[in-house]
Amino acid sequence: MTEQSQGPALDNLLTESRTFPPSDEFAAAANAGPDMYAAADADREAFWATQAERLHWDTKWDQVLDWSDAPFAKWFVGGKLNVAYNCVDRHVESGHGEQVAIHWEGEPGDTRTITYNDLLAEVSKTANALTELGLQAGDRVAIYMPMVPEAIFSMLACARLGLTHSVVFGGFSAEALRSRIEDASAKLVITTDGQYRRGKPAALKPAVDEAVAQTPTIEHVLVVKRTDTEVEWTEGRDIWWSDLVDRQSDKHTAEAFDSEHPLYILYTSGTTGKPKGILHTSGGYLTQASYTHFNVFDLKPDSDVYWCTADIGWVTGHSYIVYGPLSNRVTQVVYEGTPNTPHEGRHWEIVQKYGVSIYYTAPTLIRTFMKWGKDIPAKYDLSSLRVLGSVGEPINPEAWIWYRENIGANQTPVVDTWWQTETGAIMISPLPGVTSAKPGSAQQALPGVSAKVVDDQGKEVPHGGGGYLVLDKPWPSMLRGIWGDNDRYRETYWSRFADQGFYFAGDGAKYDADGDIWLLGRVDDVMNVSGHRISTTEVESALVSHPTVAEAAVVGATDPTTGQGIVAFVILRGDAVDGGADAVKALRDHVAKEIGPIAKPRQVMVVPELPKTRSGKIMRRLLRDVAENRSIGDVTTLADSSVMDLISQGLNKGG
Ligand code: ATP
Ligand code: MG
């Protein structure tokens, strides 16, 4: 790609001047303090060693970091711990057994209240059951389940026994499950008979039967009854959870494992291509998950009620429902269903019911709430909320403001957290109580983490400049590789800036005049218009700042005169009228006014939906296929593939 060496790596177009300093009251009580940055800079390894002391270690490490075999890191070398013990037993032992760990809310409205005593009993029974099935430390277990408590018991039971789990999102197909079982040579699948989706039970086990028919490594299928759906049964292989787990002893002694013992494999969401099986290990991972959860969300274990709306099928569910929060003795809400079942106020009803104080979700959902309209959250008492978080995509400044105003009573800090499956835990984020927040910016690497924006040559760009986001120092929760494929690991993350030894995240970013970091989307998605390298995020944010627009996705399509032309797909807000020719012209002019004529879209399409991954990220590569009249690429991680037909039909009518 020769055009990459001309001009800046990424133009810097959109500016944002609103800032929101923390209140004195919040700052005074915050877990994080401004001095943490300097402390971490002075001695990074000592800083991480202090964070590792948050955990219980059976054997202390003798070296914080071994980077001699880079890019394969070892953290807390020689240390031994049990991850599940750290998330469950020690809270019971310290006298908090009666504290609620999980307020579980089923989609049909059934509920379960699980204390730390209950959690310990359930995890112990599950661990005893897996032992009875003959599983041994190092074996792999696939978990293919909806958001039921048994999914969390299963993950923790694996961690307890040193089994490596591979959670596969319950919305994925039999083929996705098959390929993930095969890749990891898993011996057991844990699943349910069915799952509730949008108010209706849907079978899940048939997909397992289909997958397992082709994966000879699987010895057993352990099935939780959730929907009472009729299922086929293979005697000897299939076992009901209620027959096996319920009769086990609720006592189990956790054994310590090496700090680098594999904890889980998890596949990336597939926005940029074939999903990668990311490997995470134990001590460093738990240290960073725990540290970030405590400081970024300002968790007060005795008074907060925390809710992360992710699915456990994604890394956010691993680090910010299971490992980070439980290691911090959280009380949290876990919700099984979709946000509009049975009505569009379901999340706010749950916040009101449990007095949720910390709420962590994705921009895609925030923009969906914008589309549904602010009258819906306004009907509920949301006054318990005190910290809001966002993850998964760049959050457009306008969506950030909407979130703070309509959900956070114009008061709460909003933390925009940048990280990846690969990073294991949050890397770049404001710290509530410390940082003056800027809508749309993840701002600064956390204390202990180092991130830079660099140009093609790997040289740091000046303030105001744009380029590639890299992580220039190893961090405790970093991936330890791609499962079974060391070459792909080096090639994917470490080859782009091999000379400098930087981890390349695949994302574009810029510094503003203060040196704060703004994420600008995937570098694969960057558009080149008449020699200007324009980020999708900036044009999308300009569109979302128009009062009629709820959500936007832009792509660069080949253009005979400009190289690429900007094609925008927009969803209008609930209260906006339909998008005729005038509306389209208004949107094109609005972008030109907000960020300059160079970014004016060639075409604006009003669409009912956008293609999103099952984790809610917009799949721009498919929109590029549409805009360039190609056949549509791999759609296996798409939430709803009929969306692509709707969009193509609209385009053919001439948008
Ligand atoms: P694949 O690597 O298979 O394409 P994926 O990158 O979508 O999948 P994840 O690891 O779930 O899978 O997503 C990480 C990516 O999400 C980041 O690289 C970044 O592009 C985006 N992201 C996450 N959080 C933020 C954020 N706060 N701001 C901007 N982008 C974010
Ligand atoms: Mg990725």
UniProtKB/TrEMBL annotation:
Enzyme type, top EC level: ligase
Top-rank taxon: Bacteria
Family: Belongs to the ATP-dependent AMP-binding enzyme family.
Sequence ranges assigned to domain Acetyl-coenzyme A synthetase N-terminal in this UniProt record: 35-87
Modified residues (N6-acetyllysine): K617
Post-translational modification: Acetylated. Deacetylation by the SIR2-homolog deacetylase activates the enzyme.
Positions annotated to bind Mg(2+): V544, H546, V549
UniProt entry keywords in alphabetical sequence: Acetylation, ATP-binding, Ligase, Magnesium, Metal-binding, Nucleotide-binding
CDD domains: ACS
Function text: Catalyzes the conversion of acetate into acetyl-CoA (AcCoA), an essential intermediate at the junction of anabolic and catabolic pathways. AcsA undergoes a two-step reaction. In the first half reaction, AcsA combines acetate with ATP to form acetyl-adenylate (AcAMP) intermediate. In the second half reaction, it can then transfer the acetyl group from AcAMP to the sulfhydryl group of CoA, forming the product AcCoA.
PROSITE patterns for this protein: AMP_BINDING (PS00455)
Cofactors named for this entry: Mg(2+)
Sequence positions that bind ATP: G392, E393, P394, D416, T417, W418, W419, Q420, T421, D507, R522, R533
Name of the featured protein: Acetyl-coenzyme A synthetase
Chain sites annotated for binding CoA: R197, R198, G199, K200, T316, N340, S530
UniProt catalytic activity: acetate + ATP + CoA = acetyl-CoA + AMP + diphosphate
Occurrences of domain AMP-binding enzyme C-terminal (ranges): 538-617
